[in-house]
TrEMBL record:
Coiled coil: none annotated. Pfam families: Lactamase_B (PF00753), WHD_BLACT (PF17778). The lineage of its organism: Bacteria, Pseudomonadati, Pseudomonadota, Alphaproteobacteria, Sphingomonadales. This is MBL fold metallo-hydrolase. Residues 36-208 form the Metallo-beta-lactamase domain. InterPro entries: LACTB2_WH (IPR041516), Metallo-B-lactamas (IPR001279), RibonucZ/Hydroxyglut_hydro (IPR036866), Sec-metab_biosynth-thioest (IPR050662), WH-like_DNA-bd_sf (IPR036388).
């Protein structure tokens, strides 16, 4: 994971990225969110969609109101329901009367520790978009692209008129996505990467980090990186023998920020679960063994 760029960051400011796309950075930087969550406003002066409204922070909601101006909000669209992405949807809908549209709500039975941001259990959409469904406005069309993996309910949104893809946390401009079982699923994540690699998007706008101007090249590298990680796990099991997921972290992540050790352990676990399904490792309680 790369370190953040030097300050000042454009927190609360409206950045025009292309004719139909503006961006507002939320004030929630952290080791997991980089400089913060980036909310995108898509559309014309008259009617817009708001993608990933971000945390329920009054200053961010005020910044969004300034950026939106007098435009009508056709939809508040969430890529997934981590608490750095969707909680502002409800207060923004209350302020504006706009519907909440996008990913499905997610309710987990598991209450174990999580390395990534907690889930927004209060998220309640007015409409759930299925793969290929979308929203339209004057001169713009946003289409949902189902990309499970980071979370089971993750969506990307394709802006058909410009070739832009809003990638949420599935592909980010500063780091690979954290996959946290049981809801995060490495097999689904890899399949979603393969799906994006088969598309012809011009640019990615992620929820964290810089825009991505070479999408297919980056996705190809991400797929290769994940395959290297799983090969590394198999090699370490052969070299050192049975191990817990935590045992892999210091061997695989040299110089890791200690604050990210939990995320690294969860990513290793996600790889191990995927390898177990494929019959390449076995598990006895918390100990993993190579085949």
């Amino acid at each position: 994971m790369a370190g953040p760029p030097p300050k000042p960051w454009p927190t609360g400011l409206t950045e025009q990225l292309e004719p139909l796309v503006r961006r507002v950075l939320a004030p929630n930087p952290s080791p997991y969110t980089y400089t913060g969550t980036q909310t995108y406003i898509v559309g014309s002066e008259d009617r817009v969609a708001v993608i990933d409204p971000g945390p329920d922070d009054p200053s961010h909601l005020d910044a969004l109101a300034r950026a939106i101006g007098d435009a009508q909000i056709a939809a508040i669209m969430c890529t997934h329901t981590h608490r750095d992405h969707s909680p502002a949807a409800a207060p923004l809908a209350e302020r504006t009367g706009a519907p909440i549209v996008g990913c499905a709500p997610l309710v987990l039975d598991d209450s174990g520790p999580r390395a990534d941001a907690s889930f927004d259990r209060g998220y309640s959409p007015d409409r759930v978009l299925l793969d290929g469904e979308g929203m339209t406005g004057p001169g713009w069309t946003l289409t949902a692209v189902h990309t499970p993996g980071h979370t089971s309910n993750h969506l990307c949104f394709a802006l058909e008129e410009s070739g832009a893809l809003f990638t949420g946390d599935h592909v980010m401009g500063w780091s690979t996505s954290v996959i946290v079982p049981p809801d995060g699923d490495m097999s689904a994540y890899m399949a979603s990467l393969d799906r994006l690699y088969g598309r012809a998007d011009r640019v990615y706008y992620p929820a964290h980090g810089a825009q991505i101007d070479n999408p297919r090249q980056l996705v190809r590298g991400m797929i290769g990186h994940r395959r290297q990680r799983e090969n590394q796990i198999i090699r370490l099991l052969a070299e050192y023998g049975p191990a817990s997921a935590a045992d892999f972290v210091p061997r695989m992540y040299k110089g890791l920020d200690p604050r990210l050790s939990g995320a690294a352990e969860m990513s290793v676990t996600a790889h191990l679960v995927d390898l177990e399904r494929r019959g390449m490792v076995t598990r006895s309680e918390d100990i993993w063994t190579g085949q």
